[in-house]
Write a structure and sequence with these properties.
mainly alpha; about 0% strand
């Protein structure tokens, strides 16, 4: 196998792996975003508790 062919195959394989990983991550984020039982982030403005912004304002 020539070096050029090997490098092209490795680059293509890496690109495919990155795209698959991104698609899986996006699906998990979307599922979590639509789940009403997931607690809100402390950075969210409508979270039930002190957020990071409120904590910074006190100091």
């Amino acid at each position: 196998m020539e070096t050029t062919t090997l490098l092209a195959l490795l680059a293509l394989f890496t690109l495919i792996c990155v795209v698959v990983f991104a698609a899986i991550s996006k699906r998990k984020v979307e599922q979590r975003r639509h789940d009403p039982n997931v607690p809100k982030s402390s950075l969210a403005t409508d979270s039930p508790g002190k957020g990071a912004v409120e904590a910074l304002d006190r100091h």
